[in-house]
Amino acid sequence: MIILGIDPGSQTTGYGVLESDGRNRKVVALGCLKARPGVSLSVRLGVIYAGLQGVLEQYQPDEVAVEATFYGKNVHSALVMGHARGVCLLAVQQAGCQLFEYSPLEVKKSVVGQGRAGKGQVGFMIRAMLGLRATPSEDAADALAVAVCHLQRRTLMQLVKKADLTPAPSRSGKGRLSP
């Protein structure tokens, strides 16, 4: 199975492609989509969209995992981030891939063990978990972390299904496993 992880950003969008046989994970590709400095938002969005189309076409992922937008204090930044995320979602949808979304908290918990981890901690753990020789750039590491999070969640849900467990509602609405 091939998973594409995406860390959307208005300046730089990271991507990471993982291949997994259910037990082993291998990094197939990673990188960043980035426009020249000083170009307009529409040009940056075009670079992200075209770049993701190329990645989707080249690696033909079975599933795509995208980091969900966090809510910041700066409304303008959140809107611009939403535009970048939107072109990512559009590229995935047009490629016909199944899409999964994870919050930054879920991704960090999955990779580091706690949701308030810094980017350096995420990069360190991604390097260790995937046996990389060097720590990837922050955006590429975050994208790989999203892909790892998805693989872990996918494995958990397969185990739940196999054990015939169903999620029971919880107060948070996220569900808890019960027999």
UniProtKB/TrEMBL annotation:
Residues binding Mg(2+) 1, per UniProt: D7, D139
Please name the gene that encodes this protein: ruvC
Q: What is the species of this protein? A: Candidatus Edwardsbacteria bacterium GWF2_54_11
**Any keyword Nuclease?**
yes
Q: Which residues form the active site?
A: D7, E67, D139
The protein in question is named Crossover junction endodeoxyribonuclease RuvC
Subunit relationships: Homodimer which binds Holliday junction (HJ) DNA. The HJ becomes 2-fold symmetrical on binding to RuvC with unstacked arms; it has a different conformation from HJ DNA in complex with RuvA. In the full resolvosome a probable DNA-RuvA(4)-RuvB(12)-RuvC(2) complex forms which resolves the HJ.
Recorded catalytic activity of this chain's protein: Endonucleolytic cleavage at a junction such as a reciprocal single-stranded crossover between two homologous DNA duplexes (Holliday junction)
**Xref: InterPro entries:** RNaseH-like_sf (IPR012337), RNaseH_sf (IPR036397), X-over_junc_endoDNase_Mg_BS (IPR020563), X-over_junc_endoDNase_RuvC (IPR002176)
- Superkingdom, taxonomy of origin: Bacteria
Query: What taxonomic classification does the UniProt entry list for its organism?
Result: Bacteria, Candidatus Edwardsiibacteriota
Instruction: Spell out the family assignment given in the record's similarity comment.
Output: Belongs to the RuvC family.
One cellular component GO annotation, for this chain's record? Holliday junction resolvase complex
Gene3D superfamilies for this protein: Ribonuclease H-like superfamily/Ribonuclease H
